[in-house]
Design goal:
Elements lengths: L3 H8 L3 H9 L6 H14 L5 H8 L4 E6 L5 H16 L3 E6 L4 H13 L4 E4 L7 H4 L5 E4 L9 E4 L1 H14 L4 E6 L14 H10 L7 E6 L5 H14 L5 E4 L2 H13 L9 E6 L3 H4 L5 E4 L2 H16 L7 E4 L2 E3 L5
Parallel strand pairs: 1-2, 1-3, 3-4, 4-5, 5-11, 6-7, 6-8, 8-9, 9-10
Antiparallel strand pairs: 10-12
Helix pairs in contact: 1-2, 1-3, 5-13, 8-9, 10-11
Keywords: DNA-binding, Repressor, Transcription, Transcription regulation
Pfam family, one: Peripla_BP_3
Organism: Aquibacillus halophilus
């Protein structure tokens, strides 16, 4: 494998000159710079990015920890975060934690070793102190970790209220809230729990006329989830309106209704949350609460980079949501 000394010899310059070209430090004439790049190309020299980052004390790398990158929500989120990081000349080091304590701890060590300049937290199973002790800029996505860590979220409470308002408008009387998460410790830190509180708020003025039941799905496998939801709906046949805490859960409710031969939206109306791309290709297409994932991602990157630069940022950052009505209502 070619070394920096080989580049210097090929270009007829000193190793110091090659190093200055690679790290863009000091004055280098265009002719010298061209000679170095030409020599690198001819001998196929690949600079050691980690060594360069240590030299510059700047890696232009951001760590991103997600619970499950295969999940449609986190896959779209990862796409947008990488897009806006790249626009700011930062690269993403992706860590898929599976909400596993030991795995998350290993990834934290990996991020430290790779000299990341900041971390975006979308999954947290370790104690908050593990992150505060890193002395790195951190932004949390939809998780209240600490008053010292900025958070980006959507208006989950309003989302829940929009859902109940629509179901009541559609004359549903027996409502259900079906929810679930990816599991693991610190699940209560998820700001998504506010969706249920907003759902209840929307029912307050009509609570004597309405009934509500809740169901937590206890499996992460979608096929098993549909069976679990079908069993719940079979035991509660009068339910005519359902708010799901995510589009994925809403999709399993649609499956369950197909199994039970319940017509959507005539027999039962369904509302999801997130408005991921999946919601548009379901049959029927899913009515859902849109949280502006692209704008939230852009803001997350902006907040992190501002911290990296030593600037002050706001700690509570909530973006508005909106109702998108489709075929399930």
């Amino acid at each position: 494998m070619p070394k920096i000394t080989d580049v210097a010899q090929k270009a007829g310059v000193s190793v110091t000159t090659v190093s200055r070209v690679l790290n863009n430090r000091g004055y280098i004439s265009d002719a010298t710079r061209d000679k170095v790049y030409k020599a690198m190309k001819e001998i196929n020299y690949q600079p050691n990015e980690l060594a360069r980052s240590l030299f510059r004390r700047k890696s232009n790398t951001i760590g991103l920890i997600v619970p499950k990158v295969a999940h449609p929500f986190f896959s779209e989120l990862t796409y947008y975060l990488e897009h806006y990081a790249y626009k700011k000349q930062y690269k993403i080091l992706l860590c898929n934690s599976n909400r596993d304590v030991s795995k998350e701890k290993e990834y934290i060590e990996l991020l430290k070793q790779n000299q990341v300049e900041g971390i975006i937290m979308c999954s947290q199973v370790l104690e908050v102190e593990n992150y505060l002790n890193l002395n790195l800029p951190i932004v949390s996505f939809d998780r209240a970790l600490s008053k010292n860590i900025p958070v980006v979220t959507s208006d989950n409470f309003l989302g829940g209220k929009l859902a109940s308002d629509l179901l009541i408008k559609k004359e549903c009387k027996n409502l259900a809230y079906i929810y679930g998460g990816i599991g693991g410790p610190h699940h209560t830190a998820l700001l998504a729990t506010d969706r249920y509180q907003g759902f209840l708020e929307g029912m307050k003025t009509r609570k004597d006329e309405l009934s509500i039941q809740t169901k937590e799905v206890n499996t992460s496998k979608i096929a098993n989830m549909a069976e679990e939801v079908a069993e719940f709906l079979e035991k509660n046949p009068t339910i005519d309106g359902v708010f799901a805490s995510s589009d994925i859960i809403a999709s399993t409710i649609i499956q369950a209704c197909h199994l039970l031969k319940k017509a959507i939206p005539n027999d039962i109306k369904i509302i999801g949350y997130d408005d991921v791309e999946l919601s548009t290709i379901l049959t029927p297409p899913l009515t859902t609460i849109n949280q502006p994932l692209e704008k939230m991602s852009e803001l997350t990157i902006e907040l992190l980079i501002r911290q990296i630069k030593g600037e002050k940022v706001s700690f509570d950052n909530s973006l508005p949501v909106s109702l998108v009505e489709r075929g399930t209502t």
